Amino acid sequence: MEKSTPIGLGLGFALIFAAIFLGGNWLTFVDIPSILIVVGGTIAALLVAYSIDELKVVVPGLQGLLKFNPPDLNQYVHLFTDLSRTARREGLLALDRRLGEVEDAFIRFGLEMAVDGIEEQEIAEMLQVRMTEEFRPIQLFAKIMNSAGTFAPSFGMIGTLIGLVQMMQNLTDPTQIGAGMAVAMLTTLYGAVLANLVFLPLANKTKVQLALLQKAREMTRVGILSIVRGDSPSMIERRLQMLAGNQEAGGKEEASHLAKAA
Predict the structure, then answer these.
(1) Cα–Cα nearest to 110, from 135, 92, 137, 89
(2) Rounded to 5 degrees, what angle do the CA atoms 254, 245, 219 make?
(3) For the chain, what are the domain ranges?
(4) What is the pLDDT of residues 8-36, one digit of tens each?
């Protein structure tokens, strides 16, 4: 489970609230009109920018972000090296009895196609399609969070303008100036906090997790296709190590071989 995100959110809000409480009357930082402008405006803008179906990825996207377990890329290297040795000794059909050891549905999907004798090109295409479908909702979630991070401070500025207009209209009544100024300042604060502590960090964390997942899936694709081609276990191991970033590419010949595998 991803721990740094809830820790960071909790710590960030705790520090902000602590500064507010230590500064005096915390009720001055609670303004319902400001909340409606920033939160309601951001939601409204997202509804304009995205369809209802697209926005449905927000809840599962947030759940996926918090439940994300970083893939162990070295384990991928060991797994496919071991599977390639089995296939080299006993043939691709021997991998059928190894399927029960594989928990990852994507890896099992690729190995099942290899065992069934499907052509290499078709396996590559099917894996690519599945990767695209798996990445699409994650990419969309990151895009929505990034958009929200843009909309929130913008509506904070809109609230500021509204508050200033209200304040300017009531210069003759000193009792109304404070309320207008509160809306003007607090909407900017709310928008900045939501954008820089919630939306934009969530978008960035999603992109980081997606990059790790993409690398793991690409290693799986290359590993399975290499096994289907009958490449040597040592070649597969070196190739996956380079994809995992554990060693430098060794020579033009190896780089050319890797390019063909991809």
Answers:
(1) 92
(2) 75
(3) 4-73+123-261
(4) 999 999 999 898 888 777 777 888 888 99
